[in-house]
Amino acid sequence: MSDPRFGGQSTRTLQMFRGLCGEAGFKNVVILTTYWDQVSTGEGERREAQLKSNVFAQLVEGGAQFMRHDRTVESVRKVLRHFLPTPVISARIQTGIREEGKSVPDTITRSVQSKGAEEVQEEELAGLQKMLARSEGEKVDPVA
């Protein structure tokens, strides 16, 4: 929560992750935020709200949940207790390889890796424009 940026490499990594999981797997995703002790409560909650509505909006819409880790054993236990009853879902890459007989290069992984820099920049710009539109004139900082 202490880093207010979510840059190009992070965006590409998130695209890869979404492609590997597939939408069906989003409900088994937890976005675990850390370093809450390095920001004020208000600042952390503001950044978390931005992450939910902008950067991770697609995952949240698919059922992903946010959890906070405060560097305590109890915090880790809370995350583990969350996952214990979670039903197993095959990730998109597993389905592609095992059930469809595709090779790894033929899966979503390859298509995400092979995106050109220009296409990634266009996606990032579109995301920033969407973030600005949602803020309705409010000052918006990219978040991590």
Q: If you had to describe this structure to a student in words, what would you say it looks like?
A:
By secondary structure, the chain is mainly alpha-helical. It has one domain (8-135). It is built from seven helices and two strands; from the N terminus they run αβααβαααα. The protein has helices at residues 8-21, 41-55, 57-61, 73-83, 92-99, 108-113, 117-135; strands at residues 30-33, 65-68. It has a two-stranded parallel ribbon. The longest helix has 19 residues, at 117-135. Residues 139-144 have low confidence and may be disordered.
Order of helices and strands: HEHHEHHHH
The whole-angstrom Rg is 17 Å
Low-pLDDT segments: 139-144
The domain tally reads 1
Helix percentage: 40-55%
Q: How many strands, what sense, and barrel or not for the largest sheet?
A: 2 strands, parallel
Strand content: 5-15%
Mean pLDDT: 78
- What structural category characterises the helix and strand content? mainly alpha
Total number of strands: 2
Strand order of the largest sheet: 1-2
Shape: globular
